[in-house]
Amino acid sequence: MSEITYLEAIRDAIREVMKEDESVFLLGEDIGLYGGSFGLTNGLFAEFGSERVKDTPISESAIIGTAVGSAITGMRPILEIMFSDFTGCGWDQIMNQAAKIRYMFGGKAKVPMVLRTASGGGAGFGPHHSQSLEALFAHIPGLKVVMPSNPYDAKGLFISSVYDNNPVIFLEHKCLYKNKKYAQEVPDGIYTIPLGKGEVKRPGKDISIVASSYMVQKSLEAAEILQKDMQINCEVVDLRTIRPLDIDIILESVKKTGKLMCVEEACSFGSFMGEVITQVIEKGFDLLDAPPIRIAGKNCPVPYSFILEQEMLPSVEKIKDGILNMLGKN
Amino acid sequence: MKECKVRECAIIKKKLTDLKDYKIVDRYSNLKKEEKVEMLKKMYHIRYFESEVEQFILKGQIYGTCHLYIGEEANAVGAITAIRKDDWIASHHRGHGHCIAKGSDINLMMAELIGKGNGYCKGKGGSMHIADLHTYNLGANGIVGGGMGVAVGAALTNKLKKKDGVVICFIGDGSTNNGIFHESLNISSVWKLPLIYYCENNQYGMSTSIANSTNIERLSDRKASYGIEGVTIDGNNVVDVYNVVSYFAEQCRTGKGPVFIEGLTYRWRGHSKHDSQVYRTKDEVEQWKEYDPIIRYKEFLIESEIITADEAKAIEDQAVKDIKAAVDFADKSPYPDLKEVETDVYAD
Ligand SMILES: Cc1ncc(C[n+]2csc(CCOP(=O)(O)OP(=O)(O)O)c2C)c(N)n1
Ligand SMILES: [Mg+2]
After folding, report:
1. Between B124, B207, B344, which is nearest A30 by CB?
2. Is the full-model pTM beyond 0.95?
3. Residue A77, preceding peptide bond in cis (omega within 30° of 0)
4. Do strands B195-201 and A114-119 pair parallel, antiparallel, or not at all (unpaired)?
5. Into how many domains does chain A fold?
6. Is the C-beta atom of B173 inside 6 A of ligand 1?
7. What angle do CA B82, B84, B89 make, to 5 degrees?
8. By three-state DSSP, how is residue B84 classified?
């Protein structure tokens, strides 16, 4: 057990599964000696060699397609797409191949692969390197979509993703990667966290905040401040996996608080939290005693300039204000 | 202008440093003295612009990332000098040099880089997206190969509007392995579009050497698959670059279809903001630095008595001053108005 960052936890997970299972291998751009754009695969090339840690040319379609084909035929590939925005270059292989093959083949094939990629804004990378695309992935039947918020979850969810028999899109937030503030004690060796199970990260009774990935951390910070300054008691629900979605944990929470606020970084129009709110209304309308609200990214690409980027993205301040508005305390 | 000059500029051996005539000679170009001097100015501007950007990086003023063009200046300057002001270019992530060569205002570039509201893209794009339609520059691109389809479209417009313009699409060696490369080259060849693919082969795509990412001797060998002309040249020789691009630009204007030029060059700095460069040796870098495109060209200008050493020095000093002024301009410029965040998403 040692205190490690989110990035180190994912690396740890990769190392553990590679040690345990010969069929697991990595592929992606500059993941070998270079260690990947964020250094996440550092050391794995030295440990496992070039056959199992495969550097590729800049060929996203082929990388994803290779993973699909090798997965169907007996391997468990883990591929890296450097920034989630670049999945656009290989989208057909995700949407038409990875996601649909099992169904189209009448259930005869399995596609056990993990597509890991760095997602989200807040790091000044500009419009082509910062978007949150989870709604696109979650919209496609056949894909699972995982969005961990801390190192412990990241490791456990990653190991589950590798052993899952479906294509899993594993969205890692670049602002969580190396931030020591979010470092945690993480057990050595193998452990798993089931896909499709959320977790209450902070119990509360006044309002339910539902989030995933980095926004869980922001929500927890806002909840902390509201508790201290105004004795408002927020419950923070971390979805961890957005598809399958743990709707029960959300309904359970709303039953207690009567109020739902969803926090996400993606642009609000057509967003994933729109789905969450729809399901809560469909399944638990009577539990609500106020209209649910969303705190989300503004409806524009993620801009480069630091101050515009901050304006576009949700923040602790915006979450706090949203809650106060909802409770009529502003 | 004869075709032979392309052949003479073509490089036969494997690496620039294996052979090369270090010395620049100019047997063909019809460049006037002012144009030759202008090329040196542009190259110095790029060099010192990038050096200042490096300082911004060190000071933490460039928050995300950016890619420096130091060592590759001759490609942008030679190629862009060879086309007209109203010919379009499309650039890539390592795009500052193309911008400067095409005549962009360095003040507005610098302002964009540090996210100021009066920068080329109002601070919305940053280093990887500087675009300047007034100088016929379709912009840098954060997606490797992203500019290629766009360049095909611009070349098609020329054809549909019966204009004799050409388009230069700058790409890196790494982008030649992405799907869009194949699709763009093929379609532009079938449609005989006036499009010059200028591939800056700086030997690496991030950490991946071209030996590790392709199985061919020369990237220009790919011309065969598309039925187009292509050649590999010394991309650190600005005169060769100018000559070859002018020759092909003229061909393009007369409807002969696209061409593929591979300029051999070298990136002196790391790939981007963080790069420990474990994938190459210091020796290799030093070897390539001996082929400094600016020093080679300066020596050529002095030896051919186009300028004196003192004049060359004055040009260099002026470039340093201009860039310092741009930094000053950018530093003093205001940040964008927060209301701008959701504007420009749709056109009216
Ligand atoms: C589609 C896509 N894949 C990967 C990247 C990450 N990336 C940015 S630059 C680069 C290397 C590009 O190499 P090359 O085309 O040779 O240009 P150079 O950086 O050498 O100038 C990579 C892999 C990207 N921006 N877009
Ligand atoms: Mg390159």
Report:
1. B207
2. yes
3. no
4. unpaired
5. 2
6. yes
7. 85
8. coil
